[in-house]
């Protein structure tokens, strides 16, 4: 399982969100504390962020571990953002290696990440992809379970579903066909939607900012752990959590 995080709030350097927190995503790439599956997250990483005045995010993804990328550390020091989604990857057996399989996945204004696995991938692909037009299946960003889950979410978003609805519907549909772990994270730069389904997820919401993360990035107060099988919806104004019920 990977580790991921999303942020909305006042502009801060990317480094402050990803590299500096003592137990944050950078450290979680080799020493996660709450990860239930896998040990290190060294099979790639990615960061997507929004710049003021441009609704389409930038992405920086690499196939190797985050600690081996000195260029990223430099970039993260000088680039500031109000909204970000980042992930470190521990690849699931049977899934493609490489940059294209590292989250965040993206399209239009969206950034997306999947922490989890579809056991037996690509078994049951027919059932899992049912309802997805062939061109969307052929256009997957990577040959991985996460890219398929992203295509299912994006298909629903493009059909007009709200972000929370698109995630909830995807999780409940995939879970009907597979004993999947589906911690999903989605942002358009102004809101975050997330699910906990099989692994840890928490948030810290303060006045004007929200961080949603697989596990706390520090020992400071304010982190709230979500119950498993929850749907979280957040904006910089506040966060709500409700059960995901089949
Ligand atoms: N299954 C996904 C992948 O292979 C996500 C992995 C994870 O959560 N560790 O990239």
Automatic annotation (TrEMBL):
Pfam family, one: GATase_4
PROSITE patterns named in the record: GATASE_TYPE_2
Domain Glutamine amidotransferase type-2: 2-246
Source organism superkingdom: Bacteria
Enzyme category, top tier: hydrolase
InterPro entries from the UniProt entry: EgtC (IPR017808), EgtC-like (IPR026869), EgtC_Actinobacteria (IPR032889), Gamma-glu_amide_hydrolase (IPR052373), GATase_2_dom (IPR017932), Ntn_hydrolases_N (IPR029055)
EC identifiers of the protein: 3.5.1.118
Pathway listed: Amino-acid biosynthesis; ergothioneine biosynthesis
Enzymatic reactions: gamma-L-glutamyl-hercynylcysteine S-oxide + H2O = S-(hercyn-2-yl)-L-cysteine S-oxide + L-glutamate
Ranges in coiled-coil conformation: none
Keyword annotations of the record: Glutamine amidotransferase, Hydrolase
Function: Catalyzes the hydrolysis of the gamma-glutamyl amide bond of hercynyl-gamma-L-glutamyl-L-cysteine sulfoxide to produce hercynylcysteine sulfoxide, a step in the biosynthesis pathway of ergothioneine.
Name of this protein: Gamma-glutamyl-hercynylcysteine sulfoxide hydrolase
Taxon lineage: Bacteria, Bacillati, Actinomycetota, Actinomycetes, Kitasatosporales
Gene, per the UniProt record: egtC
């Amino acid at each position: 399982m990977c580790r991921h995080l999303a942020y909305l709030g006042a502009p801060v350097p990317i480094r402050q969100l990803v590299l500096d927190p003592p137990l944050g995503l950078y450290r979680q790439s080799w020493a996660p504390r709450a990860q239930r599956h896998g040990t290190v997250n060294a099979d790639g990483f990615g960061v997507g962020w929004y710049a003021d005045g441009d609704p389409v995010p930038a992405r920086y993804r690499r196939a190797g571990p985050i600690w081996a990328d000195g260029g990223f550390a430099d970039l993260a020091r000088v680039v500031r953002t109000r909204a970000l989604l980042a992930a470190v990857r521990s690849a699931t057996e049977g899934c493609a290696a490489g940059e294209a399989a590292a989250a965040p996945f993206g399209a239009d204004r969206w950034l997306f990440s999947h922490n989890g696995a579809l056991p037996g991938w690509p078994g049951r692909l027919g059932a899992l992809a049912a309802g997805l037009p062939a061109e969307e299946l052929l256009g997957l960003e990577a040959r991985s379970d996460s890219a398929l889950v992203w295509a299912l979410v994006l298909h629903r978003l493009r059909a007009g579903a709200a972000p929370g609805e698109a995630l909830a519907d995807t999780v409940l549909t995939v879970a009907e066909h597979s004993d999947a772990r589906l911690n999903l994270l989605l942002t358009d730069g102004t809101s975050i939607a997330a699910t906990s389904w099989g692994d840890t997820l928490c948030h810290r919401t303060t006045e004007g900012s929200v961080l949603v993360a697989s596990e706390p990035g520090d020992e400071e107060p304010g982190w709230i752990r979500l119950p498993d099988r929850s749907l979280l919806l957040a904006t910089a104004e506040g966060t709500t959590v409700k059960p995901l019920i089949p």
